[in-house]
Amino acid sequence: MLKESWLRRLGIVSAVAAFGLTITPAAAHADGYDTARSAVGFGVDKSVNGAIAQSMQRAREAILAVGHDCTPGAYNTRLVYASPGGTWVYESTHHAMCVD
What we know:
Elements: H1 2-28, E1 33-45, H2 48-66, E2 69-70, E3 74-82, E4 88-99
Antiparallel strand pairs: 1-4, 2-4, 3-4
């Protein structure tokens, strides 16, 4: 009887956990952040950090120009060009969820 009760509890807990995992994506957008946006920005500077910061800022500004309220999101940044003289060009793609 003890074993049967344990298995039954395990089944109920598993069902509740599966239900919670199923509704999580729908609940994630219940706060109004339901529009995915992405934008690309380029940065050019004499320093690596300056070029990266510029590219990220420009990508974020491009998203905020369209969506007035957005999550912090995520950035993908890559080196586009580095000159022998020390000019760095970076490209950042910013992905965020916004309120439409």
